[in-house]
Structure prediction request, 475 residues.
Amino acid sequence: MIESPSPLTQFSPLSQLAHLAHPEAPHEALAARFTDLAPALSQRQALIESQRCLYCYDAPCTRICPSDIDVASFIRNIANENINGAAKTILQENILGGSCARVCPTEILCEQACVRNHDAEAQPVKIGLLQRHAIDHMDFQSHPFQRAAATGRTIAVVGAGPAGLACAHRLAMLGNDVVIFEARAKPGGLNEYGIAKYKLTGDFAQREVQFLLEIGGITMQYGQTLGGNLQLSDLRDKYDAVFLGIGLGASRQLGLTGEDAPGLLAAVDYIAELRQTDDLSQLPLASRCLVIGAGNTAIDMAVQMAKLGADDVTVVYRRGTEAMSATGHEQEIAKAHQVRLKTWAQPQQVLLDETGKVRGMRFEKTRMDGKRLLGTGEMFELAADAIFKAIGQSLDAASLSDTLAHELQKTGDKIDVDDRFRTAVAGVYAGGDCVAPGQDLTVQAVQHGKLAAAAIHQDLLSGAFPRSSTRKEAA
Prediction:
């Protein structure tokens, strides 16, 4: 077990907030506020809920699932009290089915597609909770999937997030050896560092990774940063193929003066520290805070600040609520925690006090003119002790800085891939948040990794790119 660093080390992004006070409540009381947002189903509740499913022949819930889980089949297994059968049905399509059951926006995917929405009940089957029930209660004597005969091939996977982990697991199942290179001290990617603590509680993300690794044939190397001590050209020379699951590691900028002032921080940096600390009472807390953004990360940040004891939390967005990427369900979570949603407001200036610390932000009211967003010229200010940016992530340019990486084709700040997740560089594949197009969903990242693994395996067996002498010697 790797110990979590103190939340206020000199290298911590939270040093930007070192001037703020700490929560008044002790750690134990704060931790009680970060229990599961949605309580798990009991065995009886799961049985009753599973029997509501109509087991549709052409199930719309399965057709809309980004990872192709046979929803009707796993629910039928629960109804028949075959929990292991249900879990294996899920895991054979989504090896991270436990975390996805907790963080996937089922309300706009499988549950929205459920035919039960259209009957007298007008309530979908609780597919997400049933999936969680199956994974949480499975009891296999050994790993449910066995490795195929060894292929003698070794693939490098960069990034131990959902895409990289799913790719590695499927490659290992197919008989390949895999080496995962991860920049951080723990695997899991956003599941470990970027999801609200009340969605993935305790050490669930780590336990899920340990289960995944039980397939065998996967080696982990930590502290390996692409573009730093790890170069794409070296990986392609040494390994039979390379999969890039590097995510989006850089926070976008507001482009305002004062953006580096004490009191202004990327929301993902705070969330990562919150998830890793073993003492919530030592986190810096803003009594009044603003969160700039419109997605689930903005909601996660705002709700967690409210749970830590902030008096006034406001999410500010330049358009209307209907344009927010955060789902209606997420917006309701925010409202239930007394988070205000301030819309039609464009950041204009970071306001600083006499010591150079954040004291608020000036905004311009906006409106739509057809499809164009326009400023109205009317300004207003909101006071804040801290401001958190949740305006999206972009590809870290440093990670693709070597000569070979320059040959990758990109659209904007995302890597272009074909329908088999091949990049423009032979032998190099990519998936997850770092590729275009994408929905930035954990479940979609898992699917990318799974499908990319199948493509890598097939390409290697078909001799699409022969092994170089360097790779032969390394093997």
